[in-house]
Amino acid sequence: MTDSNHTPSCYANTSTPYTYVPKMDNVYLSAIFSILGLISNLVAFIVLIKSCKQTQNTSRSFFLIFLGGLVVTDFMGLLVTGSFVMSFYITYVDWRLSDPTCHFCNFMGMSMVFYGLCPLLLGATMAIERFIGIKYPFARSSRLSKGRTVSMVLLVWFIAGSISLLPLTGFGSYHIQTPGSWCFINISSKRGDWAFSLLFSLVGLISITASFLLNTVSVVTLIKVCRGAGRRQRSRDHEVEMMVQLILIMIIATVCWCPLLMYILVSALTPPTSDDMVLSFTRMAGWNQKLDPWIYIIIKVFKLRRVTNSASIDVMAQLKQSLFTPSYPNCGLCFA
């Protein structure tokens, strides 16, 4: 058994057990929700690919690239973190014995930070793109391309990945968390841990705040434009649809992530009150990855129904016209 004097840093100074034996009901529930989340993201990705192939609107195609990056991030986040948690749920592994060098603990902590920050940063990036697209459409159309849009998604992944790697350089650390089945940021009074916790929470909160401010301006501008659009109303339907999706993404991210980010921010400034709060707020944040894909799926279903209803109305109108409108094909013969 490992000597307590040589306990790795990710397991030191904690009362959290290194082995967690959950109730089977919790295991089944976690597995079901994780599988449903993966399936939802997969379906959403297929929907986005089909929409991207069908769309002829340039700004919408750029927006769909951002959405695709968000769906891929959510899918991989559920797959990676869910696999770790479920494997430890099922095998009852003793973390300190199976991972004496903290490699797995650090990797899981990095995954939690990376896949947590990516949706928030992507949401802020999409808000910036929509703000420029609605406020300054000519400037945006002349500078943005599909290649640059993909580069922006990759840049977001790079920034989130760089932040998640900081604890490996000594700036902050990852630590086993209650009840002993996962690892995350170590919230402590040490300077490095304090600074990294503050960085993580501030990046997330700033991203949400920026999304809220930019989306508010974009919605107000879009309302003004639509009121005077007249003949161009049909060309604004895509803009309205994109803003609706973006607003829903922002609301879900805010509701799911703000409790955890605020708790980490407060805990970094004052001693944390309970480790159980981190677990509860992290579970709430995890719902962001499960709820995001339903935005695209529901909107796609709504659009299909609207198209179907419009087609039905057109068919009925033509049928009424053919039944009740008199027709005189040989009218010239009637007076012969």
UniProtKB/TrEMBL annotation:
Membrane topology: Multi-pass membrane protein
Keyword Membrane: yes
Keywords, in A-Z order: Cell membrane, Disulfide bond, G-protein coupled receptor, Glycoprotein, Membrane, Phosphoprotein, Receptor, Transducer, Transmembrane, Transmembrane helix
G-protein coupled receptors family 1 profile domain ranges (all copies): 40-296
Main location: membrane
Cellular localisation: Cell membrane
TM stretches of this protein: 27-49, 61-92, 112-132, 153-174, 194-223, 244-266
Matching PANTHER family: G-PROTEIN COUPLED RECEPTOR FAMILY 1 MEMBER (PTHR11866), THROMBOXANE A2 RECEPTOR (PTHR11866:SF5)
The protein's name in its UniProt record: Thromboxane A2 receptor
Source organism of this protein record: Ataeniobius toweri
